[in-house]
Specification:
Blueprint: H1 20-33, E1 39-48, E2 53-65, E3 68-70, H2 72-82, H3 85-105, E4 112-116, H4 119-122, H5 127-138, E5 145-149, H6 157-170, E6 173-179, H7 185-191, E7 196-199, H8 201-205, H9 211-226, E8 230-233, H10 239-246, E9 251-252, E10 261-262, H11 263-275
Parallel strand pairs: 2-4, 4-5, 5-6, 6-7, 7-8, 8-9
Antiparallel strand pairs: 1-2, 1-9, 1-10, 2-3
The protein binds ligand C2E and calcium ion (3 copies).
Length: 276
């Protein structure tokens, strides 16, 4: 496959999102994708800015389909709609855990993997059971796995709170993704105990040129810390952004450190951080 990053997808254009033909093609192709082995997982490091230590990797799904490389932003919504997200999501979780176990067996330092979970998956009454099964199969300690959800799972707070509790009993960590982009971010963190707050790239993009954006970002970081959560700042691309963020003692993620990469290449990036 020649696509190495988001900008290299040749078959994606926003207009096509609305095309029902395209959607049908994706729906059909998704049915075969798992058995054909068309999915892979890329890993992007999360770096503790003060120490320069890699403390985890986010698992990001890649699909090299008969239609070409289709980005997750295009196929995940379709997979949610047709139900394929359930087996696919379980596959990603298992694959990420399998990889973490392989790294642990190599004697690598303790880290976590963060796995994105759609609201559809999360709200599946059997989700926690599936998570427990995968942890068992792969031998990975629950505390090394972080589930990334968005505030969209909080629409029905009572249901969400129960499911969160089940996951907390298992011992996996919970992250709120894309924090600050929705309408009810505060509601999401008010009602459940979260381990990690991931601040969306859009909030970071403007801070260098805008005092007001910086004030908002600094306040959200403070909020996360006051709630006892780790704070991850996403989408760091430049040394200027990293230098600025270092003062806030957060965890950074973004192209500045590494693009999401296949496991072997991600491990080589990790090695470089270990040598420093
Ligand atoms: P996300 O969870 O917010 O993931 C971060 C996205 O930003 C990823 O895009 C990542 O490649 C990209 N990114 C990371 N650093 C930078 C940076 O410095 N600059 C820029 N411009 N982008 C950066 P990707 O891999 O295309 O994934 C897009 C979205 O698709 C994810 O957003 C997530 O919502 C969803 N997704 C990806 N994998 C999965 C999965 O296994 N399951 C589910 N349910 N959703 C997934
Ligand atoms: Ca994520
Ligand atoms: Ca995110
Ligand atoms: Ca996102």
């Amino acid at each position: 496959a020649k696509s190495t990053g988001k900008e290299n997808y040749e078959f994606f254009s926003p207009e096509l999102l609305d095309s029902s033909i395209r959607k049908q093609e994706i729906t059909a192709a998704l049915q075969q994708a798992l058995v054909n082995g068309e999915f892979s997982v890329h890993y992007q490091p999360q770096v503790e800015l003060l120490s320069g230590r890699v403390i985890g990797f986010e698992a990001l799904l890649r699909w090299n389909s008969a239609l070409g490389a289709v980005p997750p932003a295009e196929f995940i919504p379709v997979a949610e709609e047709c139900g394929a997200i359930h087996p696919i999501g379980e596959w990603v979780l298992r694959e990420a855990c399998r990889q973490l176990d392989a790294w642990r067996r190599e004697g690598r330092p303790d880290i976590h993997v963060s796995v994105n979970v759609s609201a559809k998956q999360f709200l599946d009454p059997e989700f926690a059971e599936k998570v427990a099964r995968v942890l068992n199969e792969t031998n990975v300690p629950a505390g090394c796995v972080e589930i990334e959800i968005t505030e969209s799972v909080m629409i029905d707070l009572d249901t969400a709170a129960g499911l969160v509790e089940e996951l907390q009993e298992i011992g996996v960590k919970l992250a709120i993704d894309d924090f600050g982009t929705g309408y009810s971010s505060l509601n999401a963190v008010k009602n459940i105990q979260i381990d990690t707050l991931k601040i969306d790239k859009s909030l970071v993009d403007e801070v260098l040129g805008s005092d007001r954006s910086m004030a908002i970002l600094a306040t959200i970081i403070e909020l996360g810390k006051n709630l006892g959560a780790e704070v991850v700042v996403e989408g760091l691309e430049t040394i200027e952004q990293v230098t600025l963020m270092r003062q806030y003692e957060v965890i950074g993620q973004g192209y500045y450190f590494s693009r999401p990469l296949p496991a072997d290449k991600a491990a080589r990036v990790w090695d470089k951080y270990l040598e420093q």
